[in-house]
Design goal:
The chain is α/β, with parallel strands linked by helices. It has one domain: Rossmann fold, CATH 3.40.50. 45% of the residues lie in helices and 16% in strands. It has seven helices and seven strands. Strands 3-2-1-4-5-6-7 form a seven-stranded parallel β-sheet, sandwiched between helices. Helix 1 links the parallel strand 1 and strand 2. The longest helix is centred in the middle third of the chain and has 29 residues. The mean pLDDT is 96.
Length: 242
């Protein structure tokens, strides 16, 4: 039988836009309580207003361990438990290494890689204590192959993939499932695409995924029966040539 998300508590990082925002709605509509974590309190408040009592906003930065631990404690205080982590926060840089910005590279690694480490570190003790739960990390097709026009971003997602695979094997006997969703091109703010008409046109042409498409994939992973672990779900736009 599919796993029910009714009254499960989910921490979603990067929840204020794009995939994180779409996943917040998808999981809340499936019965979960969602803890919305991102830097923009204003954006989180807008989403919370639409989701109602199922949402708890926790503004913070994934590069700050204390922010994540406060968010997890707030979830425990409000809902009594925490069941799922969707480590989704990320930034994107493309371009050549020559003439690039090392400070921006460092920030990308802090968010995309350390942010995942810190998010897992904040949630995992509670999942181990209850001997059940799920950790899903938002990776990328760039984590499965080196893409030459975004080598820094690709390197960060390769690191994430290695972490996910190693963590999954460490937790095999604990009742905690670990997996990654790895989309190709997503038509959202991370890639500077916000016009709904353009998103619709390009999605219909198979040139990109909607954030909602990825959210549905996350929902699929979480609702598999407990004997199933989806280690990697790679999803591409129909016309993406990679």
């Amino acid at each position: 039988m599919p796993e029910s998300l009714q009254n499960k508590v989910v921490l979603i990082t990067g929840a204020s836009s794009g995939i994180g925002r779409a996943t917040s709605f998808a999981l809340a509509n499936a019965g979960a309580d969602v803890v919305l974590f991102a830097r923009s309190k204003q954006k989180l408040s807008t989403i919370s207003g639409q989701l109602g009592n199922r949402a708890l906003i926790c503004p913070g930065d994934v590069t700050r361990q204390e922010d994540l631990k406060l968010a997890v404690q707030a979830a425990i205080d409000r809902f009594g438990h925490i069941d799922i982590l969707f480590a989704n926060a990320g930034v994107y840089i493309s371009g050549k290494i020559s003439g690039g910005n090392p400070d921006a590279w460092s920030q990308l690694v802090d968010v995309n890689v350390k942010g995942v480490f810190f998010s897992v570190d904040a949630v995992l003790p509670f999942l181990l204590r209850q001997k059940s739960g799920d950790i899903i990390v938002c990776s990328s097709i760039s984590g499965h192959q080196a893409i030459h026009w975004e080598p820094i971003y690709s390197a960060s997602k390769h690191a994430v993939q290695s972490f996910v695979h190693g963590l999954r094997r460490q937790l095999l006997k604990t009742g905690v499932r670990v997996g990654a969703v790895a989309p190709g091109m997503v038509l959202n703010e991370l890639w500077g695409i916000t016009d709904e008409t353009e998103i619709q046109r390009r999605a219909e042409a198979g040139e990109g995924l909607r954030s909602e498409d990825v959210a549905e994939a996350v929902l699929f992973m979480l609702t598999r029966p407990r004997n199933i672990s989806v280690r990697d779900l790679v999803m591409l736009p129909r016309a993406q040539d990679l």
